[in-house]
Write a structure and sequence with these properties.
Length: about 350
């Protein structure tokens, strides 16, 4: 088969090349990949990979959707069935898996990080990682659903659930998780505010239902958000880190919560502890989502209530260009790759 193989770090280290067909082990099934999408972690794998246990060459791609081509009796799957992958091959027996919290699995093997990924003609994964889609599912959209929307789902609904009528500030609209947060927050009837360095991205967010936005290169974010929301928002979604953290804390109403899923500008902002206890703020981290949350997300997708925004579509052999599109940070929504 062909696959996007990372042989050395850097943009030139990724090639669409021959790679051995996956061999199905007991308990696994094989999927023909129809679509996937680019995520931040793909760039991290390409350029650094520090802290992720793996060896090169590595087939990239942390999500995928397609159809089953090989399975075994009792798997519950059928050849030809349309499916979407849950990216983490979890052990099923550690304390976190037993509690249903697969994103914290101590032995998890994530496709495209610790085992062969989805930028390929075929992929083998444990059968329990394949989730059926409806027969007429939009397979390109499905391939862009898991990482962004599942991360967004857990951030909004996982711990201190965002309620209809509450308000949320999404920092840095445009990325896959941020746009997914906007869609899911609107779906439940929450008020949404956004920030960006691009007036165009703010305008797109408003067209999708955001109540307002702040261009952080021109205006004071916290002041503008306090004005627009009427005293501060209930929740802030921040994956930016150092550059936005101070404003994010100041944009919260008393008793509000800040959820982080990334730190693209750095991991060590001022904690502003005095503000945290006086205003009784909650700060917590989130990454991925568990199987139960994934089932709910797929149900919402199968009902047609949510569809990932596709920024641009590339063919798999043009994987370098697709990675470059995300690297430049100009996207709004998901950079899609299709077979
Ligand atoms: Zn486990």
């Amino acid at each position: 088969m062909k696959a996007a193989v990372l042989t050395e770090r850097g943009a030139d280290g990724v090639t669409w090349s021959d790679y051995p067909d996956p061999v199905r082990k007991p308990g696994e099934s094989v999927m023909r990949v129809l679509s996937s999408s680019i995520n931040r972690v793909d760039l991290y794998m390409r350029d650094s990979g520090v802290g992720i246990t793996h060896s090169l060459p590595q087939v990239m791609g942390v999500e995928g959707a397609g159809e089953i081509v090989e399975t075994e009796p009792g798997s519950g799957l059928e050849v030809g069935q349309k499916v979407i992958l849950y990216a983490g091959a979890f052990c099923g027996s550690c304390r976190y898996c037993m509690a249903g919290n697969q994103p914290l699995c101590e032995k998890v093997q994530i496709m495209g990080e610790h085992r062969d990924g989805g930028f390929a003609d075929y992929i083998a994964m444990p059968s329990r990682n394949f989730f059926p889609l409806v027969d007429d599912a939009d397979m390109q959209a499905a391939g862009a659903l898991m990482t962004g929307h599942l991360t967004a789902w857990r951030m909004l609904f996982g711990k201190q659930t965002l309620m209809p009528g509450e308000s949320v500030l999404i920092v840095g609209i445009g990325g896959g998780v941020a746009v997914a947060c906007l869609q899911l927050a609107k779906m439940i009837g929450a008020r949404v505010f956004v920030t960006s360095s691009s007036d165009e991205k703010i305008a797109r967010a408003v067209a999708m239902g955001a109540e307002g936005g702040v261009n952080y290169t021109k205006d004071n974010v916290a002041k503008a958000i306090l004005d627009m929301s009427g005293g501060g928002v209930d929740m802030v979604i921040d994956s930016v880190g150092d550059a936005s953290w101070g404003d994010s804390l100041k944009s919260l109403r008393r008793g509000g919560r800040l959820v982080t899923c990334g730190a693209t500008t750095g991991s060590h902002p001022s904690a502003d502890i005095q503000r945290m206890f006086i205003r009784q703020l909650t700060v917590y981290g989130s990454t991925g989502g568990d199987v139960g949350e994934f089932r709910l997300l797929i149900d919402v997708f199968n009902q047609g209530l949510i569809k990932p925004v596709i920024d641009k579509t590339f063919r798999m052999p043009d994987i370098r260009d697709a990675l470059d599109r995300l690297y430049k940070g100009e996207q709004f929504g998901k950079v899609s790759v299709v077979a």
